[in-house]
Amino acid sequence: MIVHQFDQTNSILNTFIAEMRDVNIQKDVMRFRRNIERIGEVLAYEVSKTLDYEEADITTPLGTKKTYLCSDQLVLCSVLRAGLPLHQGLLSFFDAAENAFISAYRHHPNDGDDFEVIVKYFAAPSLDDKILILTDPMLATGKTLENVLNALKKHGTPKRIHIISVIGSKIGVARVENVFPEDTQLWIAAVDDALSSKGYIIPGLGDAGDLSYGVKL
């Protein structure tokens, strides 16, 4: 797997991440969602550089201009519900892409530290010979993306897979590297060192779904 980790380079992306982590700024729910969306836009642009393009002639009012347009078919697949702002950021750039959505949540038996990731709702087009872009803001343990990958297999074989995340842990990144195809590319804004006993990223930023849409029962 090729890992593109953007917090190792100074850019405006670090400002978006800092605002999302800040316990005071993240209380502004609309700004929190917009920062996730903006990160999606930045990473979409970076991913676009790896896609296939073909020559095209564009007719203007004064003549013809030769250019190159993306020839790949894209499918954006987001993990509900935290992935929705990230999905929108990607869709702002890849507006012709097909869309898929999958629900995944942690089940903690008896409120213990151990948990399993349960995948239920799933809607997707055929993935055969298409570019699959998986979006999940928080790559904590990697279990969610592993289960999502297993669920996607019955919908075809993608040409290539890209994973888009906001913050991950070293453990989660390592797990994803082990289970996804070797030519998968991970585009992630920041990677933190540790996980809590319950599998949450430290220092992280909290629960991205709750911060975006309100606390769930």
TrEMBL record:
Q: EC no.?
A: 2.4.2.9
Q: Where is the Phosphoribosyltransferase domain?
A: 12-214
Tell me which InterPro entries the record gives: PRTase-like, PRTase_dom, PyrR_bifunctional
User: Which reactions does this protein catalyse?
Assistant: UMP + diphosphate = 5-phospho-alpha-D-ribose 1-diphosphate + uracil
| Taxonomy, superkingdom | Bacteria
Spell out the CDD domains in the cross-references.
PRTases_typeI
Q: Does the keyword GTP-binding apply?
A: yes
Q: Which SUPFAM superfamilies match?
A: PRTase-like (SSF53271)
Which molecular function term from Gene Ontology is one that the record holds?
A: uracil phosphoribosyltransferase activity
Determine if Cytoplasm is one of this entry's keywords: no
Recite the UniProt keywords alphabetically: Allosteric enzyme, Glycosyltransferase, GTP-binding, Nucleotide-binding, Transferase
Q: In which pathway does it act?
A: Pyrimidine metabolism; UMP biosynthesis via salvage pathway; UMP from uracil: step 1/1
| UniProt cofactor(s) | Mg(2+)
Q: Which NCBIfam families match?
A: PRK00129.1 (NF001097)
Q: What does this protein do?
A: Catalyzes the conversion of uracil and 5-phospho-alpha-D-ribose 1-diphosphate (PRPP) to UMP and diphosphate.
Name the protein family. Answer: Belongs to the UPRTase family.
Name assigned to this protein: Uracil phosphoribosyltransferase
Species, as recorded: Flagellimonas aequoris
